[in-house]
Design a protein that fits this description.
Number of helices of chain B: 9
Shape of chain B: elongated
Number of helices of chain A: 11
Order of helices and strands of chain B: EHEHEHEEHEHHHHH
Radius of gyration of chain A: 20 Å
Number of strands of chain B: 6
CATH class of the largest domain in chain B: Alpha Beta
Strand order of the largest sheet of chain A: 3-2-1-4-5-6-7-8
CATH architecture of the largest domain in chain B: 3-Layer(aba) Sandwich
CATH topology of the largest domain in chain B: Rossmann fold
Order of helices and strands of chain A: EHEHHEEHEHEEHEHHHHH
Bound molecules: nicotinamide-adenine-dinucleotide
Largest sheet of chain B: 6 strands, mixed
Strand content of chain A: 5-15%
CATH class of the largest domain in chain A: Alpha Beta
Number of domains of chain B: 2
Radius of gyration of chain B: 19 Å
CATH superfamily of the largest domain in chain A: NAD(P)-binding Rossmann-like Domain
Structural class of chain B: alpha/beta
Oligomer: heterodimer
Structural class of chain A: alpha/beta
Largest sheet of chain A: 8 strands, mixed
Shape of chain A: globular
Largest interface: A-B, 42 and 42 residues
Strand content of chain B: 5-15%
Strand order of the largest sheet of chain B: 1-2-3-4-5-6
CATH architecture of the largest domain in chain A: 3-Layer(aba) Sandwich
C-alpha cells in the first residue's frame, strides 16, 4: 500500500473535530489546526473521549485507539500543514475568512496539496477563486456528526480539474466515507431540500394549519421518518435555521427558502430549541413532585 | 364507544377490509362515512343529531364544502378525515383528522380514540387544502424532480443522499416512481389550483407522466 499523505483539518470546532476523527480512523496521519490553541486542545480531548467510548462499546481495542491517536497532531501554526496531501477546511461560514485562510494555505502548501471546503451554503467556486489553486479545490460537505455519518456531498467548482476531483473522491472513500457527487449549487442536495421543507413546516404552524406536535406525528406516521420537522428544527437550533435561510435565500431568492416571520420571533424570544429547553416543542420538565 | 360505517363508492382510505370497518355495528354513536360518495351520503343524512361525531372521508376537498362555513364560527360534531396515501400504494397508517375552528375538543378526542383503537395513527389539522402531509411533501417532491432536470445529481445519488443524510426510508425519486408520477401530478394540480402557490405546480416530469398515462 502506498504511504498515506497526511490530512489537515483547518478549524477544529464541531465539524473539524468529527472530520479529524474520520481521517485518523481511516488511517491517515492527521493534523488538527485551529487559530485558537484552546480549540485544538479541546478537539484532541473530544477525539480521545469519542474513541474511549468506542473501546467501551467494543468497537475498537485500546491498542487500536492508541495507534489512531498516535497519528494525530494538534497545531496552531499554519506552516505545519505543509506536509498535507489534502486540507479540509471547517472554519466559520464566512466567505472572507475562508478565502483568507486558503490564500495563506496556498503560500504554505506544495503544489500537489488538494484543498477542500466543508461549507454548507457558500459557493465552492467562489471560495476556490480566492485559494490560488481553483483547479485543485473541491467541496466536501460532511454531515453532522461527521464521525457517525458516512455521507459526504462532493462538488467540483467550475475550474476544478477532473483529476483533482477524482483524487479527492478516492481520499474520501479511503477515509471510509460514502461520497456522492453534486453540482456546486446552493445547499448542494441536503440543505437545498431540507431548509425549505422545514420552513414550510413552520409556515403551517404560522397559518394555524396544525400544532407542531401534530405535524411531527403526521410526517412520521405517513412517511416513516425517524423525526418530524419540528423536532429536527429544535435539535438543529432555530438560530441555525435562520442563518441557513439567510444564506440560501440570499443567493437563490427562492420563496420557500425565505425565513418565516414566526422563526424570527421564536429566536427573539430565546426559544431556540432543545438548547434553551423550548422551541416548537417544550423540553422543560413538568414533573413538579419529583416523580 | 361504538361506530357505524356507511360506504358509498370506492374508498381511498379503506380500499380493502380493515378492523375498523369490521368492528362497525348497526347503531353506533359515531358515524363513519367512507368512499368517494361520503359527502353526498352526509348531505342525504336525515338526522345527524343522534351521533356524537360524524366522520366524512375527504378527497382533496375541504370539509367546509360539506358542512358549510360561517364567519370562522363553523364547527360541530362533523369532522373530515383521510388516510394518507401516495398514488396506488397501500394507504399509510396515518389518519389526518380535519377539524374546524369551533369543533369541540371532545368530538376530536372521540375520533382519535376510534381510529387509534383500530391500529391507526392520527394527526389533527385545520381545514386546509393538502392538510399536513401533502402540503409539506409535494413541494419537496416537485423540487426533487426539478433538480433532477437541472442535473444537480443523478437520481440514484439524490435518493441516496436523502436516505443517508436525513435517515429517510426512501428517496424522493424512487418513492415517486414506486407510487406513480401521474398521481403526483393530479395531487399537485389540485393543490396548485387551491393555493395558487408555484411550489405546488406539477413538476415537468410529473406532467409528462400524466400525459403518457392519459394516452394509454
Ligand atoms: N454544524 C453543522 O451542522 C455543519 C454541518 C456541515 C457543515 N458545516 C460547516 O462546517 C464549518 C464549520 O462549522 P462548525 O459548526 O464546526 O463551526 P465551529 O464554530 O464549531 O468551529 C469553527 C472553528 O474554526 C476556527 N477558526 C476560525 N477561523 C479560523 C482560521 N482562520 N483558521 C483556523 N481556524 C479558524 C474557530 O476557532 C473554531 O474552532 C462551516 O463552514 C459550516 O457551515 C457545519
Amino acid at each position: 500500500m502506498t504511504e498515506k499523505h497526511p490530512v489537515g483539518v483547518a478549524g477544529s470546532g464541531t465539524m473539524g473535530t468529527g472530520i479529524a476523527i474520520v481521517a485518523a480512523r481511516g488511517g491517515f496521519p492527521t493534523l488538527v489546526f485551529d487559530l485558537d490553541e484552546g480549540r485544538v486542545a479541546a478537539a484532541l480531548a473530544a477525539m480521545r473521549a469519542f474513541f474511549g467510548k468506542s473501546v467501551q462499546r467494543g468497537k475498537l481495542t485500546q491498542d487500536q485507539v492508541d495507534e489512531i491517536m498516535g497519528r494525530v497532531t494538534g497545531t496552531s501554526r499554519i506552516e505545519d500543514l505543509a506536509v498535507c496531501g489534502l486540507v479540509i477546511e471547517a472554519i466559520y461560514e464566512e466567505l472572507e475568512a475562508k478565502g483568507k485562510l486558503f490564500a495563506a494555505l496556498d503560500a504554505v502548501c506544495p503544489a500537489h496539496t488538494l484543498f477542500a471546503s466543508n461549507t454548507s451554503t457558500l459557493s465552492i467556486t467562489e471560495i476556490a477563486a480566492r485559494s490560488g489553486r481553483d483547479d485543485r479545490f473541491v467541496g466536501m460537505h460532511f454531515c453532522l456528526p461527521a464521525q457517525l455519518m458516512k455521507l459526504v456531498e462532493m462538488s467540483p467548482g467550475l475550474n476544478t480539474s477532473q483529476e483533482s476531483f477524482e483524487a479527492a473522491w478516492a481520499l474520501c472513500e479511503a477515509m471510509g466515507q460514502r461520497p456522492v457527487k453534486t453540482q456546486d449549487a446552493p445547499g448542494f442536495i441536503l440543505n437545498y431540500f431540507l431548509v425549505p421543507f422545514n420552513n414550510d413546516a413552520i409556515r403551517l404552524v404560522e397559518e394555524g394549519v396544525a400544532a407542531p406536535e401534530e405535524i411531527d406525528k403526521a410526517i412520521k406516521g405517513a412517511l416513516g421518518y425517524a423525526m418530524g420537522p419540528m423536532e429536527l428544527l429544535d435539535l438543529v437550533g432555530l438560530d441555525t435555521q435562520v442563518l441557513l435561510c439567510e444564506a440560501l435565500h440570499g443567493v437563490t431568492n427562492a420563496p420557500r427558502a425565505a425565513c418565516p416571520p414566526l422563526l424570527r420571533r421564536m429566536v427573539a424570544a430565546r426559544r431556540l430549541g432543545r438548547k434553551t429547553k423550548r422551541g416548537f416543542l417544550n423540553y422543560e420538565t413538568t414533573a413538579i413532585f419529583g416523580a | 364507544m361504538s361506530h357505524t360505517v356507511i360506504a358509498s363508492g370506492e374508498s381511498r382510505s379503506f380500499p380493502e377490509a380493515h378492523p375498523l370497518l369490521a368492528a362497525g355495528g348497526e347503531s353506533g354513536d359515531i358515524l363513519v362515512l367512507i368512499g368517494a360518495g361520503a359527502g353526498a351520503a352526509f348531505a342525504a343524512l336525515k338526522d345527524p343529531a343522534p351521533y356524537r361525531a360524524i366522520l366524512i372521508e375527504l378527497g382533496t376537498e375541504c370539509l367546509g364544502v360539506h358542512t358549510g362555513e360561517s364567519r370562522g364560527d363553523e364547527g360541530g360534531t362533523v369532522l373530515g378525515f383521510a388516510r394518507f396515501r401516495l398514488g396506488n400504494a397501500a394507504p399509510s397508517d396515518l389518519v389526518e383528522i380535519v377539524r374546524q375552528p369551533r369543533t369541540p375538543d371532545a368530538v376530536v378526542a372521540a375520533a382519535r380514540a376510534l381510529f387509534e383503537a383500530h391500529g391507526l395513527k392520527t394527526a389533527v389539522c385545520g381545514d386546509f387544502p393538502g392538510r399536513i402531509v401533502d402540503r409539506l411533501v409535494r413541494p419537496y417532491y416537485n423540487a426533487a424532480l426539478g433538480r433532477l432536470d437541472a442535473k444537480l445529481a443523478t437520481a440514484a445519488d439524490m435518493d441516496l443522499t436523502l436516505k443517508l443524510g436525513l435517515g429517510y426510508p426512501e428517496g424522493p425519486i424512487e418513492l415517486l416512481e414506486r407510487t406513480g408520477l401521474a398521481a403526483h401530478c393530479d395531487v399537485t394540480q389540485a393543490l396548485y389550483d387551491a393555493l395558487g402557490d408555484a411550489a405546488y405546480a406539477p413538476a415537468r416530469r410529473a406532467q409528462v407522466a400524466k400525459a403518457r398515462a392519459g394516452e394509454k
